[in-house]
Amino acid sequence: MPLRLVRAEMADIPQLVDLYFNTFKSPLVLRVKPDVPPVREWYKKSLESDIEKPHTRIYKVVEGQAESAQASDEIIAFAKWSSPHTEPQQEKPTDWSVDGDVALFKEVTDKATEKKKKIMGEKEYWYIGVLATLPKHQHRGAGSLLMTEFCKQADEAGHWSYVEASPLGRPTYQRFAFETRDTFSVVIDGEPYIDSCMVREPQIVSINVTKHAGYY
């Protein structure tokens, strides 16, 4: 069956939660976000908050034709990204579940935030928070559908893009012109776990080249 990319809705969130925890099994995720009910509830509330934000976009990939779409269609992949924005001062993240490794979560968050500020500075950029495909549906092009849509939106806006990529995720981002600018690491069970800080420069959209050729 063909794959179809559509915007996710609030009713999709239970499936997105299942997909997330069925996909991510890295040592970092297993420690920070163990697959237990309190952490699943935390992630569910986080997605419910994000999906209502105007700067956050969540897309899903399902099988089948548009005219045969049903609410029960299995979601085989999803991604969450955000456009440049300033968080309102009163806005705060959903309280973190104590069932995860709180100390490790804080260490990773602090290191990721520091690296992002150092690399991106004052640039406006789009940020990829999640890119996930169910293991049994990988290598079918679902991730590419999501990444193509993300790059299209970022390029049309003329903005940079940023992602913290796991070792397994890095090759996907490299295929879409992301470059590793730095890394950060944490130690889990005596072994280093390294994430890559990856940046993509805005690409010139062809329609804009034609329309504004005199400016280039």
UniProtKB/TrEMBL annotation:
Keyword Glycosyltransferase found: no
Entry GO MF terms: acyltransferase activity, transferring groups other than amino-acyl groups
CDD domains: NAT_SF
Residue ranges constituting the N-acetyltransferase domain according to the UniProt record: 1-200
Statement: the UniProt record of this protein carries the keyword Transferase: yes
Alphabetical keyword list: Acyltransferase, Transferase
Cited PANTHER family: GNAT FAMILY ACETYLTRANSFERASE, N-ACETYLTRANSFERASE DOMAIN-CONTAINING PROTEIN
Name of the protein described by the UniProt record: Acyl-CoA N-acyltransferase
Organism lineage string: Eukaryota, Fungi, Dikarya, Ascomycota, Pezizomycotina
